[in-house]
Amino acid sequence: MALLINDKCINCDMCDPECPNEAITMGEEFYEIDPARCTECIGHYDKPTCQSVCPISKCIIIDPDNVETEDELLEKFVSLQGLA
């Protein structure tokens, strides 16, 4: 599952530099996560770093439109890292 930054985002800039996949960018109103690049930090960390550093509760959530299994996220990690 990719993650999603909702409209609770205050654009604090905490999440963007923490993303190891460079999936987070500034959108028109607030930060956004590219589901094609988000692996929920699988392959990098034990849990998503963006959620860990976000000061707003429930601002970064599972994206219901981009549900993926852990195996699919790991495959995406391998592909993004050029390991395949």
Automatic annotation (TrEMBL):
One of its Pfam families is Fer4
Q: Which GO terms describe its molecular function?
A: 4 iron, 4 sulfur cluster binding; metal ion binding
Please state the span of the N-terminal signal peptide per the UniProt entry: none
* SUPFAM superfamilies the record matches: 4Fe-4S ferredoxins
Q: What are the alphabetically sorted keywords of the record?
A: 4Fe-4S, Electron transport, Iron, Iron-sulfur, Metal-binding, Repeat, Transport
Q: Where is the 4Fe-4S ferredoxin-type domain?
A: 1-29
Q: Please give the name of this protein.
A: 4Fe-4S dicluster domain-containing protein
Source species of the chain: Photobacterium frigidiphilum
Phylogenetic lineage: Bacteria, Pseudomonadati, Pseudomonadota, Gammaproteobacteria, Vibrionales
